[in-house]
């Protein structure tokens, strides 16, 4: 069984989803059901425990792990406060740290993210930091106690694919915790690409939520992630730019 | 450096000629670009772009969906007081308009906030006339403190303040600032703002920037359309927004496109801005700044607002009262301006759902005071430890 371990938790599905940008909760719920996803990220700032049936948590299938995120935090202190709010609100122990102090490109602040990871891991959270793919920053996050690292493929919501491919490849090569490619994945083929590269999982939100048929798109992503993972496990053949002549330099030895 | 320096540089350009010089080809070129410059913006605001409204709308819709999703954040104004020391020709609150002025006391503020929450509103914008005496920083901070119990986000739309004063309010839990410059054209500005501190053009123009410096999470600007040629005014507004976003990348910059509404002074707009033109203004701005917020008030009529939602709006007010104390005790009184969309919050929510949008009542948690000391002291200790560790 090909399992993914995040902290102490075993997962069998490698597509993570998110609650943002959906037109309505019932559509969201159906999309999740068809995605196979076991982990869903929820912006704490959008959670309204007093909203009764409009409380977004009510519409998350009970089998899914809720990974609250600190969306809206602009520094480590805000991320820490939001994480504590999430825990106090009963959203469990997982926290996806998002520290974004740039409202134009929505790029994460690695330095503040490392600080928040340190504080929250010490407080017993299962910390999954969203980050700009940088090997040193990833190492520091892992040293600080991150349970996984979530590099962006492209800026959030950009649907531009894995533009950070080379840096993510390095993170995967050097990984000691799972690498989950988050943000920028616009098409199932791009999710498959990340999985073929050896990513442990991908998080897809905008592409599903804003599709004309979110349910169909959720299914498509599920298949793509499974396909990419299978290809990775099966061992992709090496890629070469041109044809290889057989042993032009060492042929004389035979 | 202030946006005023930019304004001085661009204010005397021959705008009429510039706008007239664009052709549909220029508009098409701008439509194909992913990152638009000032010239593209001018093209999109020009009369030629009037022939490409549908194309502009399609792109604006797509960009907004991608950046913000199928969601609209709802908010409402809470008028704290209508005392004002200014005389502005277009506003009912002008000091020389004779009507009984009011100022809410703490109990009344609590009742208003509660009434708003019961209606389904948790993002509240506190409004006042402009009077340092009747709407002092202390009074505003106290109001924010009361609001915190019922609201998820508190903004202010009050007289321009100093950076330190804004910072005081941020510490009290205020996270948003709205300052409309009314009219960027400085000559017209002086004509309309007849008396009072509001006559100080520069002090008001720099207020949004002071708010950014003070740590406001979001800053909303806008020009009151109808006071000068809207194409020019929207151009200045967009450049002002871009200036702020570039310099304060951590702040959410949003823009409103308010049109002059009937008011007590009987002022009528100098320049008419029809629906088609308002749409063009909004679309041009959305294409120029795809990530910026666009706020829509109940100044506009319900049906028209419903159409605007798909064209780039990210935030809209609902069931607004522009009367001091207008939520807890509904009665006819002097409002700052007349409301056009009089639907209830539930009606607006249902309409949004029909249109395929999710109405959002809560999009923030007020973090001020919340375990505050604790977090900061931990963070500071952490820093010290890290540094100590590094030096060993």
From TrEMBL, chain A:
Gene: thiG
Top EC category: transferase
Pfam families assigned to the protein according to its UniProt record, in alphabetical order: ThiG
InterPro entries hit by this protein: Aldolase_TIM (IPR013785), Thiazole_synthase_ThiG (IPR033983), ThiG (IPR008867)
Family: Belongs to the ThiG family.
Catalytic site positions: 96 (schiff-base intermediate with dxp)
GO biological process, alphabetically ordered: thiamine diphosphate biosynthetic process
Top-level lineage group: Bacteria
Protein name in the entry: Thiazole synthase
Entry-linked CDD domains: ThiG
HAMAP family attached to this UniProt entry: ThiG (MF_00443)
GO cellular component assignments: cytoplasm
TrEMBL record, chain B:
Entry keywords, A to Z: 4Fe-4S, Iron, Iron-sulfur, Lyase, Metal-binding, S-adenosyl-L-methionine
Cofactor: [4Fe-4S] cluster
Record-level Gene Ontology MF annotations: 2-iminoacetate synthase activity; 4 iron, 4 sulfur cluster binding; iron ion binding
Key word Metal-binding present: yes
Top-tier EC class: lyase
PROSITE patterns hit by this protein: RADICAL_SAM
Domain Radical SAM core as annotated: residue spans: 68-305
EC numbers on record: 4.1.99.19
InterPro entries, per database record: Aldolase_TIM, BATS_dom, rSAM, rSAM_sf, ThiH, ThiH/NoCL/HydG-like
PANTHER family: 2-IMINOACETATE SYNTHASE
Official protein name in the record: 2-iminoacetate synthase ThiH
